[in-house]
Every structure is written in C-alpha cells, then in structure tokens.
Amino acid sequence: KVGWYNAVLQPTFHLPYPDDTLAFVVLSTPSMFDKALKPFVNKERLKIIRDPVDQCISHHLSRVKEKFPDQRVDVMFDYEMLPSRKPKFLAQTAAHVAGAAYYYQRKDVKLDPWGKKKIFGVCIHPKYGGWFAIRGLLLFPDIQVPSLEQPSPVDCVSTEEKRIELLEQFNFHWQDGRYRDIIEVKERYSEEQKAYFATPPAERLRLLGLSQ
C-alpha cells in the first residue's frame, strides 16, 4: 500500500495517492537479460534510441498496462526524476516496505565503525542476493486495499558482522560485485550480463550489436 511507503519517508518524498492505494514493485531477476532484453533488442533493433534496458522495461510494463484496459495504471520507472532532480520514487524503500527485498542501512548496524563517512544502504533479496534490480512501480489509483496486510522483508543478512561486511563492500568496493554474494544465492548474472553492466553505458550498444 502507498501508505506503507509514505509512512517511512519525509513528506517531500511522499507519493500523491491515498494511503490504501494498491501498488506493485517490479524487480528484474538474473534471467531478465536472456528472456527479455536480448529478444527485445533483436526485435526492436532499429527503434532503440536510449538505454536498451530502460526501453525494454518500459516496453514490458506498457504491455502490463494494456492487460487492464478498464483500470487506471500509473507507471514510475527507477530512473525517472522530478523537475527538482529528486527521484520519482525511492526504489529501495519501496522494495523494503513491499516485503520484496531487505534494505540494509547504516541504522541496521549497532556498533557503527564509519565515523563521519557517508554510507549508502543496499537491498538484498533472499533468493538472488544482490543479483537483481528494482525497475519500477505500478500504481492502481482506483483500487483501494484497506485490509491488505504488510509482509516483512526477509532479513537474510542477520548478523552484525555480515551487515558491516555488506555495507563496506557496497560502499567501498562495489565495482567488484562481491556484495552481491553476501548470502548463498540461487541464481546470478551470466558472464555476458556481467560484462554488459560493467561496460560504460555509452559503449553498451556496441556489445549488443547496435551501432552508436
């Protein structure tokens, strides 16, 4: 429910819907690359004018909207910004309150070792660890769900030592991706997918066989 999200954030980040409004957080799993992105690129090769992943997600979520012709469905993407340059929604907070993935933050560590350093939080999924992404939000403004019960996210990095290790790796060594394997995972990105996301965005089109 939108109210779960708004309850944990300052008013400047609130979503402008009643508290009982139904919302879905959209995640992409490791198999998205082979099952969605590559077929999309092959089919829409000539129409790709910006980031292929963003266009692929947009394509699939617009198809979801088409499945509900009698409903208003508002879509927000993780990369969208407001005119104030704030993100349209805070993806990791949304995933946490929806019970999709646990958002580990500095406040989850009792004996904070970082002093004045800025420490960013990170979401970990109980099945995919850090090998997933939060892509968007689907909101159904005409559907109110007052009796929906809030699920808790799975606290899969439960020891103090592991949480410190996770936040250290994410903040100071994120390029090597070790933080993604902080827990035993069921599935991770393929080597091809790792190479794609490790490539600077401007050069990714070449990897997919698209001209610049």
TrEMBL record:
Entry's Gene Ontology cellular component terms: cytoplasm
Cofactor(s) required, per the database record: FMN; FAD
Single GO biological process annotation from the record: cobalamin metabolic process
Catalytically driven reaction(s): 2 cob(II)alamin-[cyanocobalamin reductase] + 2 hydrogen cyanide + NADP(+) = 2 cyanocob(III)alamin + 2 apo-[cyanocobalamin reductase] + NADPH + H(+); apo-[alkylcobalamin reductase] + an R-cob(III)alamin + glutathione = cob(I)alamin-[alkylcobalamin reductase] + an S-substituted glutathione + H(+); apo-[alkylcobalamin reductase] + methylcob(III)alamin + glutathione = S-methyl glutathione + cob(I)alamin-[alkylcobalamin reductase] + H(+); apo-[alkylcobalamin reductase] + adenosylcob(III)alamin + glutathione = S-adenosylglutathione + cob(I)alamin-[alkylcobalamin reductase] + H(+)
Name of a matching Pfam family: MMACHC
Family: Belongs to the MMACHC family.
Protein name listed in UniProt: Cyanocobalamin reductase / alkylcobalamin dealkylase
Protein species of origin: Erpornis zantholeuca
